[in-house]
């Protein structure tokens, strides 16, 4: 049984690692967002930008090291590509948040949770196809 589980993990290590570190990155993002939006009463847009920055730094380090196990010596190039694609997903998230909060009157955190599903999927595709290939 353990050998079968190890085989399945080894076969799906990247996806499992992405889900684990993606969940941790999402937690960092949500906690930062809630701290700035609900505690410090910062507008949802500014709170989301701060949360984005903090979580992107965390995500780059964990994705490079543990998920995609990048051996590239072009760290700056890789980091800039990571930032470039995460800016695309930030725009996607901001548009989703605007639609859900300002147009459809969702609570900011509820909108943030919904937007996360879109962003996590986009970020995996960007990382797999363009950044850590």
Q: What key attributes describe this structure?
A:
single chain; 133 residues; mainly alpha; 5 helices; 0% strand
Describe what this molecule looks like in 3D:
It contains five helices and no strands. It has one domain. By secondary structure, it is mainly alpha-helical. α3 runs antiparallel to α4.
User: Overall 3D geometry?
Assistant: globular
Mean pLDDT: 92
| Strand fraction | under 5%
Number of domains: 1
The topology string of helices and strands comes to HHHHH
The Rg value, from CA coordinates, equals: 16 Å
Class by alpha and beta content: mainly alpha
Specify the helix fraction band. Answer: over 70%
Distance between the termini: 32 Å
Brief write-up:
With 133 residues, the chain is mainly α. It has helices at 2-11, 13-39, 44-67, 75-103, 108-131.
Q: What is this structure's SSE topology?
A:
Blueprint: H1 2-11, H2 13-39, H3 44-67, H4 75-103, H5 108-131
Helix pairs in contact: 2-3, 2-5, 3-4, 4-5
